[in-house]
Design a protein that fits this description.
The protein is an alpha/beta fold. The protein contains ten helices and 16 strands.
Length: 382
């Protein structure tokens, strides 16, 4: 009987964005097991080192390994090599033999998700219901593969905390502990373990921020508040950005710090409002909201801009001068047209006088035979 080993190291993701070894997906698992020739009775050891990640992918890994075990009739062992947090615990539980150590403390919590900042009430409600289903699936798996009940599993998940190695063994998350070196001084060992546990929490939270987990948890709080009857107050700035006064009701008016009374708190793009835009936001009314951290410390009224008034007056004066010049041009054009009319009248008068002179000459030469040419030439000018 041969012993084979694969390693599931990195964040559990549905599809990898990076190929730097920091992420693990179903393709990685398929590549790892497809190159192994299994015989009945062989053992496959799955080393785990992950902060967790996508729950659906973790269940996918669980199902593939379980199917492999049943089809090949092999023994399946899971072992914690480093971290085992969140959806990594799902993968841990697929092993019939699950090996931990004194320093391995699985981290469990309720399911999280991220909806973004343009979420309707129906979308939030559906997310709430979907998350409740995922929580139930995980709790049911814990109960099936360990010694605890569904109720106890939900209690552990609600605590969002680490399960000590001793409790993991007692609850059935581990079936055995590896022999690892520990200080003979139990007080020192316990102190180190406690500090290590706190450091793990910090490291896990920092790693989760890489995948927007901090935003996910914050949004989850918003969803919980929504179903408690609380609505976040969203205030739009002059450039249509959103300030999230997450502790205010939707019909409340944000207030700035006043003496000993703290100002209302707000976030911008998931971060304290004071960490963006130098902490200053111009509102549609012209007011400026100023923040330090999340606290609204000052509301500056809209300033009377004298320079703008002076500029406007100057522009009006220029426009007035332009209009005067245009009127003067129109007057000049009118005078020129009047002069042309006078010239035309003078020409017509001269032609009429010439016509009269011609008529008199014609009468003298031939009273009976007038010349029509010149008479008719200007008759329509009368």
């Amino acid at each position: 009987m041969a012993v084979h080993e694969i390693k599931i190291y990195g964040d559990i993701v549905p599809f990898k964005w990076f190929n730097d070894g920091s992420e693990y997906d179903l393709k990685d698992l398929n590549s790892a097991i497809s190159g192994i020739e299994f015989s009945e009775g062989d053992e496959l050891i799955v080393g785990i080192h992950t902060f967790g990640g996508d729950t659906s992918t973790a269940f996918g890994i669980y199902n593939i390994l379980l199917r492999l075990k049943n089809q090949k009739k092999i023994n399946l062992t899971t072992r914690i090599d480093g971290w085992c947090a969140s959806s990594g615990v799902i993968i841990l539980l697929v092993g019939d033999k699950r090996i931990g150590n004194a320093y391995a403390e699985p981290f469990v919590h309720n399911a999280w998700t991220y909806l973004g900042f343009s979420t309707t009430a129906d979308e939030a409600k559906k997310a709430y219901e979907d998350l409740a289903k995922v929580d139930n699936q995980i709790a049911t798996l814990y109960a099936e593969r360990t010694n605890i009940s569904v109720e106890k599993a939900i209690e552990l998940m609600n605590s969002e905390n680490y399960i000590t190695a001793e409790d993991s063994l007692a609850f059935g998350f581990f079936t055995e502990l590896e022999n690892v070196y520990a200080s003979e001084n139990s007080l020192i060992f316990n102190s180190l373990r406690e500090n290590n546990s706190q450091n793990r929490k910090i490291k896990i939270q920092n790693n989760m921020s890489k995948n927007n987990e901090a935003k996910k948890k914050d949004l989850w709080t918003q969803i919980e508040n929504f179903f408690k009857g609380t609505k976040n107050k969203i205030v739009f700035t002059a450039d249509n950005s959103e300030l999230d006064f997450y502790e205010l009701a939707d019909d409340a008016i944000p207030k700035a710090k006043d003496g000993e009374t703290a100002g209302d708190k707000a976030k911008f793009d998931g971060k304290p409002a004071g960490e963006n835009n130098n902490g200053e936001y111009v509102m549609p009314s012209g007011e400026t909201y100023k923040f330090v951290g999340e606290e609204l410390t000052e509301i500056v009224p809209k300033e009377d801009d004298n320079s703008n008034s002076e500029t406007e007056i100057a522009n009006l004066k220029t426009e007035n001068e332009n209009l005067k010049a245009e009127i003067e041009n129109i007057k000049n054009e009118k005078t020129a047209l009047n002069n042309k009319v006078l010239d035309a009248e003078r020409i017509i008068k001269n032609f009429k006088e010439l016509e009269n002179d011609d008529d008199e000459e014609d009468e003298k030469r031939n009273p009976r035979t007038p010349e029509p040419t010149k008479r008719n030439l200007f008759k329509n000018l009368k």
